[in-house]
Amino acid sequence: MLWRIFSAFVKKEFYHILRDRRTLFILIGMPIVLVLLFGYVVTNEFKDASIAVLDNSRDDLSHELRQHLEASGHFHIVADLRSYGDLEGQFKTGKIKMAVVIPARFEDDFFDKKQTTVQLIADGTEPNYATTLVNYASQMILRFQQIKSGAAAAPYRVKVETRMVYNPQLRSAYNFVPGVIAMILMLISAMMTSLTIAREKETGTMDLLLVSPLPPLLIILGKVVPYTVLSFLNAVMILVMGFYVFHVPVLGSLPLLLGICLLYLAVALALGVLISTKSETQQAAMMSSLFALMLPTMLLSGFIFPIKSMPALLQHISSIIPATYFIDLLKSVMLKGNDLSFIWQPTLILTFMLVVLLGLALVSFKVRKE
Amino acid sequence: MSSTADHIIEADKLTKRFGDFTAVDAISFKVKKGEIFGFLGANGAGKTTAIRMLIGLSRPTEGEATVAGFDVYRQADKIKENIGYMSQKFSLYEDLTVRENIRFYGGIYGLSRKKIKEQTGRIIEEVGLENSAGNLVGSLPLGWKQRLAFAVSMVHSPSIVFLDEPTGGVDPAARRQFWEMIYQASAAGRTVFVTTHYMDEAEYCDRVSIMVSGKIEALGSPAKLKEDFSASSIDEVFVQLARGGAVISD
Description:
heterodimer; A: alpha/beta; abc type-2 transporter like fold; 2 domains; 4 strands; 6% strand; B: alpha/beta; Rossmann fold; 36% helix; globular
């Protein structure tokens, strides 16, 4: 009997979803759009960056350095400047983002004095991009120096060798795939659930449900289960896209990974139900979801900005955002291949959040108004 | 006074306050089994609040009430099994078809598949929607939506059905059709508790109560009320009441 009631409810919910183009787009289009957007547009990786070179030396060695920079495929020398005066014009038009200044007597100083200085000038209006370019160019120049000095190297030398573990090529996909999963699951589970409950309140159909002998828990479950299924499929879809399109690996156990997704989903759904009990209209539900859930999930979870560099207050806020722990867990399992013994702590915190939120949601979902 | 057994709804000094505002002020009345009871009053007189207390959507501040023999405070779940409700907001799912709506409400009341099929056929025929059963409810004219909502509120064959302003916004012909359905429900032994602010509809009821700012100021059969107030219509009774003065007869 309960099962029959429940299935009638779920069936109705699927009619709503399938017949509303907006909902369908958010459910199916949004994850794809976001993954592609983050994959191809929002990225720190660069290719063929346009740079200028001011070569004051014009000897064999400076020529080789220029070739070395271009050979990487990351830099494209678009301007060969004659004087410092030309530099500003190049930056102002925005044609170049970085200039490499090679001093006079470059080759002579390098081999005779064993000391010379190459200057890198970058456009600071885009700080992230500028930093990336400068870092990369510095590394290449260092490498150039090593090749050229070879055996003639100074006797005392500290050689720095870096290796980025878990993401050797520093692919941004390794970061955004977990981030997008956190965002999408929050969007679909919390926002869509709160919207659909608020819609029933707005149209008055909620009253009919409350007047029926349905237990309140069943009303909530009937609303939540279809979205759980769909969000879960979305998480799988993003993982698959991450794996095949952006080569993000899953080193840890897949069941553990999916289990974590389910846990986070449940937290998001509880948040959605909680929001819907506080909002009488769809618009109110939408606003609360956007400001209380989506923005923090995007900005304060460590997905876009690193938590460690936030001011103390924001770090505290970040520590109560479910996505903070979820992204940490995802990376831990996907990239480091950790098992539960390494990640029990964030898992426990998420579980605790779930219990608290679920309790609050059930208490505030009242059939009878005082 | 007739015996309690014949009364399917009883309210005794039922009161609802929101802060300092008393929406429903100690109303007392009894509704007989099988009767069409009109709950009249201007907009904002407290009709909807009163109905919401009776059907378990709002907890009374004070007073007693039983519906179908069950207490509104403690046995709201029992009450729900015995009542149907149609709210003043038109309340079926517009993005579901006629048939899907009937099946859904049948489903949440736990009817068997066979029973749902039976009821679907009956309701579609009763409302006259044979040709639109597969259409989205949102595409139907308002009068049809209202009649469908009424029929759907009785999908589980409740002994009482509460109608809150069921005929708002439609023309007199559609209202007349709706009242035909109320008569049919009543003839089938169902108690109909209907709120309205159309005074002409009061004439169709067995008995009416008239609410003015949270209080019941008159209660009785339409004929009796007209006699007591020496009025030619319930509308006149209402106008007199709005100026002050109360008569309760049974």
